[in-house]
């Protein structure tokens, strides 16, 4: 599955670790060299949207814009996965309704994301 990974630059290390595990599981994860440079084009290419939430991410206008784009896109219906990196993070209420994953070590968080993506893929296949 093509996954857009949204995060604040302060969370780059954790994002990289999560992306690596998702790639090992067969997912194509943005950012990567072969994805479009334009964030909007990358969002339009993705099948799923994962946002890493931290105080820096919640305060970032860039992450906020990416979340708003994903919320307005039918392609991400039931395919938005919020991941809480810091328990003290004030999560936007709309993302609280999406069963946020409470990040553990990055590998565990990535495995939980992968399970949710696999469930969604199975649901999509059954609907066809």
Features:
about 130 residues; alpha/beta; Rossmann fold; 5-stranded parallel sheet; 6 helices; 5 strands; about 50% helix
Describe this structure in words.
It is built from 6 helices and 5 strands. The chain has 128 residues and is an alpha/beta fold. The chain has a single domain (2-123), classed as Toll/interleukin-1 receptor homology (TIR) domain (Rossmann fold), CATH 3.40.50. The model has no long low-confidence stretch (mean pLDDT 92).
Shape, principal axes of CA atoms: globular
Low-confidence stretches: none
Strand order of the largest sheet: 2-1-3-4-5
- Architecture, according to CATH? 3-Layer(aba) Sandwich
By CATH, the superfamily comes out as: Toll/interleukin-1 receptor homology (TIR) domain
User: What top-tier CATH class fits best?
Assistant: Alpha Beta
Strand proportion: 15-25%
Ends: how far apart?
Answer: 17 Å
CATH topology: Rossmann fold
Main sheet makeup: 5 strands, parallel
Beta strands, count: 5
Number of contiguous helices: 6
What structural class should be given to the helix and strand makeup? alpha/beta
Average per-residue pLDDT, rounded, comes to 92
SSE order, as H and E? EHEHEHHEHEH
* Radius of gyration, CA atoms, in whole angstroms: 13 Å
Amount of helix: 40-55%
Tally of domains? 1
């Amino acid at each position: 599955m093509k996954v857009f990974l949204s995060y604040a630059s302060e969370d780059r290390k954790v994002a990289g670790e999560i992306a690596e595990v998702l790639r090992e599981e067969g997912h194509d994860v943005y950012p990567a060299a072969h994805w479009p440079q334009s964030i909007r084009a990358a969002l339009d290419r993705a099948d799923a949207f994962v946002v890493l939430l931290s105080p820096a991410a919640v305060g970032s206008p860039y992450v906020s814009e990416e979340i708003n784009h994903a919320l307005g896109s039918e392609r991400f219906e039931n395919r938005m996965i919020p991941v809480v990196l810091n328990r003290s993070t004030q999560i936007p209420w709309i993302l609280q309704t999406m069963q946020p994953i409470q990040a553990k070590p990055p590998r565990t968080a990535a495995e939980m994301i992968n399970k949710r993506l696999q469930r969604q893929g199975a649901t999509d296949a059954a609907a066809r």
